[in-house]
Write a structure and sequence with these properties.
Length: 227
């Protein structure tokens, strides 16, 4: 059903978009993911989302306790259409909810902090799915996020300042982890064919008019043998 539905949707979008969807979905991953806690500067939030798209990270988890996650379209450049963003906004325990949810999905939690020598982004274990959690611009991660982490991770630096800007930290981390995954043999870290198909259907829905009605009609025609 899903394959036939995607074929039908591909008939009503441009060949250029079809080529892009096929090429980009094949490079997407959920093996590594990113979570951000309480960002308040929209240019940082937007830049992180854009980096997720650029490095093929399909999911961005957003913890919003005190600050709402706002996207600057001029910076994000439409990345929100292609990256799945999951929001955790309950008033008391959004950080706990987010990290518990990720752990239930099988992720190890890597808290990014410059104040530890435990691991760097170059040697943090990648034998299991991993979620990198980044903190707010001024104070970093909350104590709760640090307490719930499986690993502490930092980015090697050789200058006087003790940390990178949050959006730079996220981009450097994603780039390094992506490169390491690509060099690991025998690890299935990209989306399965079924996951790619489901994702491409969602992307099609983002660019067609009245997607729910179109999908409903296509499903009916598939069931009736018209497609």
């Amino acid at each position: 059903m899903q394959e036939k539905l995607l074929e039908a949707l591909y008939q009503i979008i441009t060949p250029e978009k079809v080529e892009k969807f096929e090429r980009i979905a094949a490079e997407r991953t959920r093996y590594a993911t990113v979570a951000v806690e309480n960002l308040f500067q929209e240019h940082n939030a937007s830049a992180v989302m854009r980096s997720c798209d650029c490095f093929g990270i399909q999911d961005l988890h957003i913890i919003e306790q005190d600050n709402k996650f706002n996207v600057n379209r001029d910076i994000a450049l439409g990345a929100g259409q292609w990256v799945d963003h999951h929001h955790y906004t309950d008033i008391l325990y959004p950080t706990t909810t987010c990290i518990t949810t990720l752990k239930e999905k099988g992720y190890k939690i890597a808290a990014t902090t410059p104040h530890t020598d435990a691991y760097t982004i170059n040697n943090v274990p990648l034998d299991e799915p991993i979620a990198f959690v980044f903190g707010t611009e001024q104070t970093g991660l909350s104590e709760k996020a640090l307490d719930l982490a499986d690993y502490y991770v930092k980015i090697p630096m050789v200058g006087f300042t003790e940390s990178f800007n949050i959006s730079v930290s996220a981009a450097l981390t994603m780039n390094t982890i992506r490169t390491r995954l690509e060099n690991m043999e025998g690890l299935n870290w990209k989306l399965t064919k079924e996951e790619q198909t489901a994702l491409k259907i969602e992307w099609c829905k983002n660019i067609i008019r009245n997607p729910d009605n179109v999908i409903k009609d296509f499903i009916r025609r598939i069931k009736e043998g018209e497609l």
